[in-house]
Write a structure and sequence with these properties.
CATH architecture: Orthogonal Bundle
Distance between the termini: 36 Å
Number of helices: 5
Oligomer: single chain
Number of strands: 3
CATH class: Mainly Alpha
Number of domains: 1
Helix content: 55-70%
Structural class: mainly alpha
Low-confidence stretches: none
Radius of gyration: 15 Å
Shape: globular
Order of helices and strands: HHEHHEEH
Strand order of the largest sheet: 1-3-2
Length: 116
């Protein structure tokens, strides 16, 4: 049994695998990292498209996969500035943890190994 299959945990093994699968694609990982690293609290699809040099349709497909994987979520409408055109996205709590304790830690470890 995997540790996350314990009935006391909030996430099932399938939830975790879905999130890993969502960021397992380089393009989706880049979108998720851009959302993570964006200076504002939320970011729109047009902003992501401009920053990443992709079409809005491509970004929307990647965002949809990240939302389905539980890595990114649409910000609550009450938290979004009314002057913003379209939904804004942010990392979920799990997505932030996945980045800070997982993905970015792996990049740091790889950097440390390459310095040896």
């Amino acid at each position: 049994m995997l540790p996350i299959d314990d009935t006391e945990t909030l996430l099932s093994a399938e939830d975790v695998v879905d999130a890993i699968d969502a960021i397992g694609d380089r393009d989706r990982l880049e979108v998720a990292y851009t959302v993570y690293d964006h200076p504002a609290e939320g970011v729109t699809v047009p902003e992501l498209a401009a920053e990443l040099g992709a079409t809005e349709a491509e970004i929307q497909d990647r965002i949809d996969a990240l939302v389905d994987g539980g890595v990114v979520a649409e910000r609550m409408a009450c938290l979004v500035d009314c002057s913003i055109d379209g939904p804004q996205y942010e990392l979920t709590q799990f997505g932030r943890l996945l980045f800070e304790e997982g993905v970015l830690s792996l990049f740091d470890a790889a950097s440390a190994v390459s310095e040896l």
